[in-house]
Amino acid sequence: METGLYVGYVPGFPGAHTQGTSLDELQQNLQEVVSMLLEDGEPVLDAQFVGTQQLAIA
């Protein structure tokens, strides 16, 4: 089943996942989720930063 939604998560950050109808909405939703989780206390991160990559979607 295809929903047309973008899905995102923050690796190693339990509970940091969301969806949006556009990449901009997805990014805003992820920022909101991370902010809410940080307000609830110190998160336990199980990941190590490796790098980022930008993709162009045609």
UniProtKB/TrEMBL annotation:
Gene3D superfamilies: 3.30.160.250
InterPro entries found in the cross-reference section: TTHA1013/TTHA0281-like (IPR035069)
Protein name, as recorded: Uncharacterized conserved protein
Organism of origin: Serpentinimonas raichei
